Amino acid sequence: MGSTIAGSMTKSALVIVAAALCLHSAIAVCFLARKECENTSDKYLCESCFQSESIDSKIKPLLCPDCGNSNSAYDCVSCLNSDISAWVKGKSCQSCANGKGPSACVSCLSSDVEDDLKDDLCIACSNSTNQWKCNECLTASMDKDSKYKCPACANSKNPSSCTSCLTSTLNVGVKADLCLKCADSNDPVRCNECLASGIDDKFKPECVDCANSASAAACIGCLTYAINEEYKTNTCLMCAETNQPWKCTSCLTQSFEDEIKANTCIECANGNDPDFCNTCMTFSGMDPDQRKTLCTGCVNTPDPWKCGECITYDIPKELKWVCQDCPSATDPEKCNMCLTNGFRSHEWRKANCAVDEFKRPVGRSRFTQKHATSSVA
Predict the structure, then answer these.
(1) Taking the mean position of all CA atoms in its chain, how far away is CA 90?
(2) H or E stretch at 73
């Protein structure tokens, strides 16, 4: 019995001693907290930081006061209470709390982003215009170099499109140069599709210009065509600005001389009948420059096909110029036939075949006056 009482007293004493030690420890922590937090902006949260069992006591004297003086003490203390590494806590919790988006920043530090990127990029994301989109970008599957573009992507017109581009299998250099530009373009989705289309990297900057053009689809389609590479640097874009972009890009695939193709296709697409003009450029029997001039001249007449029929006739070269006047004559068919009349001299046919007595002086047509001195033997 006596031993039982003695044993009970011993246990009670131990409990009292333990409680006393615990109280002594709490008092010590409380005293330290009050001392360190006395001059901070948020004493309460600073002291709660010292009293937290989740925070390593070794870092409390240094980091708890910093949190108490931060712009968002709550987020700073939450950061210290998280399960991120002590190295990251010491380097980034206060910086996050002083950023524009402290909650998003702390969330970023707690994510699976690589530790060596967190200090720079989580804070940069918190200062972006779209912090949560930036965090999504950092946690997406991509190479480290591309992740440094995430804050800029978050500030772009289309952060989701930008992130999608950075996660693609594009060359790292292409992503660094063009993902952000695509996101800020008028058509980010098509721009990304263009970058991923398989065109040579040297033409990929054209994707951005195409996305900002009047007809992004036609321009980007043109970049993927099996055409002369020179067209891809400027001509595809110029085609997109014509009246008929698809007709212009289609023209670039036609089988006629490359040296005249770019300007011709653009002129054809701005004419009355691009289909005629594109077909006309494949006519044989004329040198390239003459065919270009005649076809682009015919395309702006009232009846391009009638004009085109005329220039295919077996008539002297100087008379082919008159073909452009025939569609405006009173009787275009008669005008065409007149030019084939071998019983009349060249000069007579030039002066009379296209004459419309109701509109033009007898003996001279509007076109032949302009080209009277440009005959070709």
Answers:
(1) 38
(2) helix 73-81
88: Cβ contacts below 8 Å, ≥ 6 apart? 109, 115, 118, 119
Mean of pLDDT over the chain = 82
Exposed/middle/buried for 226, CB within 10 Å: 0-12, 13-18, 19+? exposed
CA distance 353 to 336: 8
Residue 362 pLDDT exceeds 70:
no
pLDDT above 90 for 207? yes
Q: With DSSP H G I counted as helix, E B as strand and the rest as coil, what are the percentages for the chain, rounded to 5?
A: 65, 0, 35
Distance CA 285, CA 194 (A): 39
pLDDT at 192 over 60: yes
Could you tell me how far CA 86 lies from the centroid of its own chain? 39
Distance between CA atoms of residues 45 and 181, nearest Å: 44
Q: Cβ atoms within 10 A of the Cβ of 79, count?
A: 27
pTM: 0.70
Structure tokens, 228: 């002369």
- Write the pLDDT tens digit of every residue in 247-288: 999 999 988 888 888 899 999 999 888 999 888 888 877 888
8 Å CB contact between 361 and 345 = no
How many residues make up the chain in this entry? Answer: 377
Which among 259, 374, 377 has a CA at the least distance from the CA of 321?
374
Q: What is the DSSP letter of 176?
A: H
Q: Render pLDDT for 66-108 as a digit per residue (tens, 0 to 9).
A: 888 888 889 989 989 888 888 888 888 888 888 888 899 899 9
The answer for residues whose C-beta is within 8 angstroms of residue 54's C-beta and 6 or more apart is 80, 81
Sign of CA dihedral 34, 37, 42, 46: negative
Distance, CA of 117 to CA of 123 (rounded, Å) = 10
Q: CA 360 to CA 26: how far, in whole Å?
A: 111
Report which DSSP code applies to 56: -
According to the model, what pLDDT value does residue 376 have? 37
Spatial contact of 151 and 125, defined as CB atoms under 8 Å apart: yes
**The two structure tokens encoding residue 285:** 């029997």
Whole-angstrom CA distances from 5 to 9, 16, 60, 117 are 6, 16, 44, 63
Quick check: 197 and 220 in contact, CB under 8 A? yes
Q: Which two tokens stand for residue 296?
A: 């682009």
